[in-house]
Amino acid sequence: MYSMWLDAREQALWRGYLTMTGRLQAVMNRQLQQDCGLSLADYDVLVALDESPGCRMSELGERLGWEQSRVSHQLRRMGERGLIDRRNADDDRRSVIVGLSEQGRAALAAAAPAHVELVRAVVFDGMSAAQLRAVGRWVTEVLDRLG
Fold first, then answer.
1. Confidence of residue 3 (pLDDT cuts 50, 70, 90)
2. pTM listed for this prediction
3. Domain containing 77 — which CATH number?
4. Which range marks the domain in which residue 37 is found?
5. Cβ–Cβ < 8 Å for 80, 116
6. Is residue 132 domain-resident?
7. I need a surface site. Which of 29, 44, 71, 134 has the fewest CB within 10 A?
8. What's the whole-number mean pLDDT along residues 105-121?
9. Phi/psi at 33 (nearest 5 deg)?
10. Burial class of 84 by CB neighbour count within 10 A (0 to 12, 13 to 18, 19+)
């Protein structure tokens, strides 16, 4: 039977993880804003659409792990800035198909090099191959348990 509380080691790891992810998201967001005027949410959408062109808005939400209202608001803002294209699906007029506009492709191409450099420097530099495999297994297992 599980204790109602995390033990000291679990608590330290959990708090460290939360602090790390919060700081990492803040640093990535700041870098993207300063370098190219994109938010981290903008970048996440651009990457997802680049990897899955012409997907339904509902699929995009599942891919990002976002609620439908967040997806709708984010896409509206990005559409107003010309970063994405939206159209009704041919097979279901209630479904919306989303893709990168030319401006969105250019924004992603401009943002990606510095973003990758930041992630590599902060997260992966100094990590051994064994550590990389262990973290990869851990992330996969947690994601599997989340369904």
1. confident
2. 0.90
3. 1.10.10.10
4. 24-118
5. no
6. no
7. 134
8. 97
9. -60, -50
10. buried
